[in-house]
Amino acid sequence: MRRTIGGALVTLAALLGCVACTAPAGPAPASSAASAPVAAPSSPQAAPSPPGRSMTVAVLGDSLSRGYNACSHFGDCPSVSWSGGTDDRVDSVATRLGAAAGARVTVRNLARSGATVSDLARQATEAVTLQPDLVTLLIGANDVCRATVADMTSTEDYTTAVSAALQQIAQYSPDTVVLVASIPDVTALLPVAAGNPTARFLWAQGGCATALQDPQSTAPDAVERRAAVSARIREYDAALAGACGVLPRCVTDGGALHRYTPTLQQLSAFDRFHPSVAGLRELAQLEWRALSRSPRAAALLEPAG
């Protein structure tokens, strides 16, 4: 999700003393303000777990899977990723997988801050070379977080890209389980944070104008704009569910992340959009619940014998 808030943070620090010197301890949605400028994926990380059986997790998506703005510095912080992070405060999906399966888990975080669904083909191609045990996918917020509604990625283009990527993984890495997260409804941030002056200041710097511009406005055009964003996200989620549903080793969260509404403390103090550590822990819990309860992932979760 693209944001240019570095300068805004300096300004806000001058106004308020220090903005978010440390993110709150502990979504948003969404998978998912918009992601930062594109950043390179991290090197492999090993989640702490027992020796013996080895597993690989590949993380696909955008800044929502990069721990963006969740640490004590601006930008990516993959150690607190909901999917592949190693920080105990988050208890990521990869960490929980290692504990459940009695395995040592290596994570390749291929997600890129700022990515839209158009980047998914590249990420999926790199993922299949790893032949991972698990792939996690959360992408789509940047496709709606644009300057105008007309700039949002069409449902047809989103559907085509997601379907092609999931089919590619199924064809070239057939033993891989894929966990597909639904997309957070970014308009759900409005009742949570629109009344907060700091949040309004940060949102005004850009990044998700379609959802967060004039956040307290009740003018018909503002209401219509937000409704269009929500409708497009629901269409994306339907596309994800449809593309995943036809594949035997693909698991969705059933819309759990889409329905999740964060608290103000679960949003990064750097931008009041991305999840804080507390928000990322909640996200990890939602997605792990979906994975661990799905019959499609039963073999993945079997303890090492």
Number of domain units: 1
Q: Can you tell me the CATH class?
A: Alpha Beta
Helix percentage range = 25-40%
Distance between the termini: 42 Å
Name the strands of the widest sheet in spatial order: 1-3-2-4-5-6
Mean pLDDT: 88
Total number of beta strands: 6
Given helix and strand content, the structural type is alpha/beta
Any idea what the CATH superfamily is called?
A: SGNH hydrolase
In CATH, the architecture is 3-Layer(aba) Sandwich
The main pleated sheet reads as:
6 strands, mixed
Rg over C-alpha atoms, rounded to the nearest angstrom: 18 Å
Strand content: 5-15%
SSE pattern, N- to C-terminal? HEEHEHEHHEHHHHEHHH
Shape: globular
Q: Segments where pLDDT lies below 50 for 5+ residues?
A: 2-38
- Distinct helical segment count: 12
The CATH topology is given as: Rossmann fold
Main traits of this protein?
305 residues, alpha/beta, Rossmann fold, 6-stranded mixed β-sheet, 12 helices, disordered N terminus
Structural features, described:
- With 305 residues, the chain is α/β, with parallel strands linked by helices.
- The chain has a single domain, classed as Rossmann fold, CATH 3.40.50.
- It is 39% helix and 10% strand.
- It has helices at residues 6-16, 93-101, 120-130, 141-144, 155-172, 189-193, 197-203, 209-212, 220-245, 256-259, 277-292, 298-301, and strands at residues 45-47, 53-61, 103-109, 134-138, 177-180, 250-252.
- It has a 6-stranded mixed β-sheet, sandwiched between helices.
- Helix 3 (120-130) packs parallel to helix 5 and helix 5 packs parallel to helix 9.
- Residues 59-279 form the SGNH hydrolase-type esterase domain.
- Residues 1-25 form the signal peptide.
- Keywords: Signal.
- This is SGNH hydrolase-type esterase domain-containing protein.
